[in-house]
């Protein structure tokens, strides 16, 4: 049995969601219902990772004091420096 639901959502979000639903050939109601079904399923763990991500976990070991911003800066400097 379907029941009507009123939601308050930002206008821009609604417009984007309608475009997305149209591309997927579904109604916005169907799209939202699918999302709510998926997120409200019993035993649904939002922090669960896909099997691929789980299989990659632990492949790379990074030191605790690793400065990723500095490493990225060094990478960009090397990439764009004239050699």
Describe the overall structure.
The structure is a single chain. The chain is an all-alpha fold and 83 residues long. Helices cover 54% and strands 0% of the residues. The protein contains four helices and no strands.
SSE blueprint and pairings:
Elements: H1 11-23, H2 28-40, H3 51-56, H4 68-80
Characterize this entry briefly.
The protein has 83 residues and is mostly helical. Helix content is 54%, strand content 0%.
Q: Which quaternary structure do these chains form?
A: single chain
Strand content: under 5%
Mean pLDDT reading: 84
Q: What Rg, in angstroms, do the CA atoms define?
A: 22 Å
Number of helices: 4
Q: How many structurally independent domains?
A: 1
Biggest sheet, in brief?
none
What ranges have pLDDT less than 50 throughout 5 or more consecutive residues?
none
Name the overall outline: elongated
Order of helices and strands: HHHH
Q: Which structural category fits the helices and strands?
A: mainly alpha
> How many strand elements?
0
